[in-house]
Design a protein that fits this description.
Length: 111
């Protein structure tokens, strides 16, 4: 997947988080948002801010997502992850640094 820093372990964790969130009818978790944003931090500063501090630069993230979505199958993990992240940031809106954010990461069973 170009434009990402995905590793096989991250893909497994993200897929599990996306499946759990879908099954439970909820947004992805904060840890899920952090892991997904970290994969796209190469795409721009807004993703890096979210990944490192929890800061949501809403307009910047939402403006970068469409170009990242181009050319991928709608069922791909890449599309599912970005779509879930878009819903997450839209729900939470603009926010600053989140205390304890750096301690969050998906582990094993994402539930």
């Amino acid at each position: 997947m170009s434009n990402t820093a995905y590793t096989p372990d991250d893909e497994t964790l993200i897929a599990s988080e996306l499946d759990s969130a879908t099954a439970d009818g909820r947004l992805i978790s904060d840890a899920g948002a952090r892991v997904i944003a970290a994969q796209f931090a190469v795409g721009g500063d807004a993703f890096a801010c979210l990944a490192s501090t929890g800061t949501i630069l809403l307009e910047e993230i939402r403006s970068e997502i469409p170009s990242l979505l181009e050319g991928y199958d709608s069922d791909s993990l890449f599309i599912r992850a970005l779509t879930a992240l878009d819903h997450y940031v839209s729900h939470h809106g603009v926010r600053g640094t989140v205390p304890g954010w750096s301690d969050l990461w998906l582990r094993g069973d994402a539930r």
